[in-house]
Amino acid sequence: MTEALLSMGIEELGLNLSEANIAGLELFLQEMGRWNQVHNLTAIEGEKESIRLHLIDSIAVLPVLREFLKAQNPAIADLGSGGGLPAIPIAIVQPEWRLTLIEAIRKKTAFLQHVRGKLKLKNIEVLSERVENVALQQTGQFDAVISRAFTNLARFLELSLPLLKPGGLVFAMKSKRADEEMKDVCKDDWRLLADEALFIPNLSVERRLLVLTPVRKSLVTP
């Protein structure tokens, strides 16, 4: 599968992946394909489509994340992680980052736990919980929150806010509908730091990454 990964443009992302990174990504895809036959984790099937729409789509966000995440070991929550996208590919390539995968569907969290053990990913935690419950338990614990096709932007921001540390960041992976979704975001509550077009080799579908941060409200003294 290595040749397929490289030929489909993973090198063009400029991430300087190691052999261990490539091996980890390959194993993740293999396990996803194996589990998908029984548990229907994703509607996307076939090696080429999985590489393009799962792996490359997920790690294409890394240059932007690296630019904005200044902490050496940032804590990142992936909301509605599903089959582990984008969190598992990110965790493979960035072993020093700490990722918490939040997913309410048990068959999917079973897969995530399996992959965690199979790939020996000590930098991830899997929570089989609704995001709202995690927000109550881990308020203000994360440097960043990320999601890929979890819910609409306004709802994603609402769910992310209690999880964030002061000055925390939200990374929203979106398509061409991002402009439409931004209209529903209150500009008094959120500041758009970046709207980056993502380069996905061999993929014609538009991908964008929005980076937002909550607006700190000044205290009004009587």
From TrEMBL:
Keywords: Cytoplasm, Methyltransferase, rRNA processing, S-adenosyl-L-methionine, Transferase. The gene is rsmG. PANTHER family: S-ADENOSYL-L-METHIONINE-DEPENDENT METHYLTRANSFERASES SUPERFAMILY PROTEIN. Belongs to the methyltransferase superfamily. RNA methyltransferase RsmG family. S-adenosyl-L-methionine binds at G80, L85, V131, E132, R148. It comes from the Bacteria. It catalyses: guanosine(527) in 16S rRNA + S-adenosyl-L-methionine = N(7)-methylguanosine(527) in 16S rRNA + S-adenosyl-L-homocysteine. Its main location: cytoplasm. Its EC number is 2.1.1.170. It comes from Polynucleobacter wuianus. This is Ribosomal RNA small subunit methyltransferase G. InterPro entries: rRNA_ssu_MeTfrase_G, SAM-dependent_MTases_sf.
